[in-house]
Write a structure and sequence with these properties.
This protein is α/β, with parallel strands linked by helices. It has six helices and seven strands.
Length: about 240
């Protein structure tokens, strides 16, 4: 049900390697930005389509998902409810991966969550907090990496991170971001402690689809992070 209590269908785009010989591949689930009131799984201004395409070429199965939006959440003060709905939809996507793992040759024990802007805030607070989706309703097992692009700090349970203590989070942020200030990224890094690491693109704003430098920065650091924290563990560096 959406914010107006209407039933809606949510979709995902699936990006797969071609002609690879692996019986099962690790998966990356991408969650788009847009302030939880706009955006979609295939928005041209969002960097996730380019990233999903790049990672599929490198051997990952990628999913870019839609989730419930609420264009009225600011006016109605429904921030928590809107984020909770979105987090439930991301959790449903994780469950979809598990249910369809054999069909799409996915190893559901090796999943990464990645988000941009509001999508980053959703995946960060979903994984590192139990306030959005109850632990009894969302199994975090198999989620081995989290990627936060231009996101924000933890809004819930900020004093103690939940989930597997070995699951790492990569923060990618521009130090000229005026939408989600760089200071919030630094606060998030402090909240994560040993589970976090951050890469900063000097002079970059909130956006990442304007220059080749921005795209290469994201692809390089995300690939390096996933090799160290997801793919190498799965494929022994293959």
């Amino acid at each position: 049900k959406d914010y107006q209590d209407n039933s809606i269908d949510l979709a995902l785009d699936l990006y797969q390697p071609e002609s690879d010989s692996a019986a099962y591949r690790p998966a990356v689930i991408f969650v788009h930005g847009g302030g939880m009131y706009t955006g979609s799984k295939d928005s041209e201004w969002d960097p996730l389509v380019s990233l999903a395409t790049d990672l599929a070429r490198k051997g990952y199965v990628c999913l870019s998902i839609d989730y419930r939006l609420n264009p009225e959440w600011e006016a109605t003060g429904a921030f928590n409810e809107t984020m909770k709905n979105a987090a439930e939809d991301v959790a449903s996507a994780v469950n979809w991966v598990r249910a369809n793992a054999d069909t799409y040759r996915i190893n559901a024990d090796y999943i990464a969550l990645a988000g941009y802007s509001a999508g980053a805030e959703i995946v960060d607070n979903l994984y590192f907090s139990d306030r959005l989706v109850n632990a009894a309703d969302f199994d975090k097992q198999g989620i081995r990496a989290v990627i936060s692009i231009s996101g924000n700090r933890l809004f819930f349970d900020s004093s103690a991170c939940s989930g597997d203590p070995h699951t790492k989070c990569l923060i990618l942020h521009g130090d000229a971001d005026t939408i989600n200030p760089y200071s919030d990224a630094e606060k998030f890094l402090a909240q994560l402690g040993a589970q976090g690491e951050m890469q900063t693109l000097s002079g970059n704003s909130h956006f990442w689809t304007e220059t080749d430098e921005q795209q290469l920065f994201l692809k390089h650091h995300i690939t390096d992070f996933l090799i160290r924290n997801l793919f190498a563990n799965y494929a022994e560096g293959e």
